[in-house]
Design goal:
The protein is about 40% helix and about 15% strand. With about 375 residues, it is of the alpha+beta class. It folds into 3 domains: about 10-70, Roll (SH3 type barrels), CATH 2.30.30.520; about 75-230, 3-Layer(aba) Sandwich (Glutaredoxin); about 270-370, no CATH class.
């Protein structure tokens, strides 16, 4: 993603006008109709197109920028369906639910399974935060998920965005495009011994309810949680929401109960794999572990430390929601109001956290004592 290097002049997003930008990128001109969200001091732009995609356009890529009085309106379900089907390889169809457009070239039964799973998550997620006192809103853009029939097609399609990382990631939510992309989990190698797969909805549920499928399903739910959170007002895309917080929310919701008709009967239950990892991490946990988790996002980007960072993010989220729920919601409200491309820096991040939860050393001691009692 091109980065707007200069400081932002301010949030300029408005539904009262439509911006038309022509940019030159990768040897070709690209025309984007949307709304201007941010203008940087050097003239760089952050534009949101009618399909929800974010376009960061530095000055050197800008060819033309005009504005008219037409109001900004997201694409309708039909318009977005046509546009995305035109972008995807041949053979894709679309399955529509209340909130989702599932684009797929695998079996329709699998697309329906995905739609049902995501809608159950959506209801559970929104109900949970409403009960906590945080007001969410309906997504402005239709939630889009792209499901490939096989891993190789998925890797090929995602290579421009993920590079070689697509070979080790079974699905992801893109902050830039606002879409989820994945492949049919019933085709993964770990489940290949079940020959009668990807058939009826009953067979799909049976395969993906097995213990060996838990990690794969949890990964997809994790990414779907990100999509809901960034579209319903919990976070703002490209804002300086700490990664420990956004990932902590995702790991808090990531494990569904697929044998329950409601899917998320045990929201907030112990995430066993994350707890085990966190307890292992405690043997060599440095004294400044909590402050480094809060101050910046470096540990999540370090392959050697990322799994421990995710485990600690889950543990901290679990602890705060149980022991300090009102402060957590107050902190959440503050983070949800952050604007795109405005960076706080480590010092301010720590000040914001301590301003809500209190002195870090005492909180860390209470946090560790509490987590050592969790089973």
């Amino acid at each position: 993603m091109p980065i707007l290097l200069a400081l932002c002049l301010g949030w300029t997003g408005s539904a009262l006008c439509l911006d038309h930008v022509t940019l030159h990128r990768d040897g070709r001109d690209i025309h984007v109709d949307g709304r201007l969200l941010v203008t940087a001091e050097d003239g760089g732009l952050l534009l949101q197109s009618r399909d929800g995609v974010l376009w960061a356009v530095p000055p050197e890529e800008q060819v033309q920028h005009t504005t008219d009085d037409a109001p900004f309106k997201p694409y309708t379900r039909e318009e977005l369906s046509r546009r995305l089907l035109a972008e995807l390889p041949r053979g894709f169809d679309v399955h529509r639910t209340a909130h989702y457009l599932i684009f797929y070239d695998t079996s329709r039964a699998y697309a329906q399974w995905c739609g049902s799973l995501f809608e159950r998550l959506y209801r559970a997620f929104t109900n949970y935060w409403t009960r906590k006192g945080f007001e969410l809103h309906e997504p402005e853009f239709h939630l889009a998920a792209i499901v490939f029939a096989d891993r190789n097609s998925y890797i090929k399609f995602t290579r421009p965005e993920l590079g070689n990382a697509g070979q080790s990631i079974i699905g992801f939510f893109s902050l830039r495009t606002n879409r989820m992309t994945m492949y049919d989990l019933t085709k993964i190698e770990a489940l290949s011994r079940y020959r009668n797969r990807a058939g009826t909805s009953v067979q799909i549920r049976e395969i993906l309810s097995r213990p060996e499928a838990l990690r794969q399903v949890s990964t997809i739910v994790h990414e779907a949680t990100h999509q809901i959170a960034f579209n319903c007002g919990l976070h703002t895309r490209y804002s300086d929401c700490p990664v420990w917080f956004s990932e902590g929310v995702a790991v808090y919701f990531e494990t569904p109960d697929l044998r329950s008709s409601k899917g998320w009967r045990g929201i907030g239950a112990v995430n066993r794999p994350r707890l085990v990892r966190f307890l292992q991490y405690l043997h060599n946990r440095p004294a400044n572990s909590l402050s480094t988790l809060l101050a910046d996002d470096k540990r999540f980007r370090d392959p050697k430390r990322s799994l421990d960072a995710y485990a600690e993010a889950w543990a901290l989220t679990y602890y705060l929601l149980r022991q300090h729920p009102q402060q957590y919601v107050a902190y959440l409200k503050m983070l949800s109001e952050k604007k795109p491309l405005v960076t706080d820096g480590p010092k301010k991040r720590l000040e914001q956290f301590q301003g809500v939860f209190g002195e870090l050393r005492q909180l860390d001691a209470d946090f560790l004592r509490y987590m050592l009692r969790v089973h």
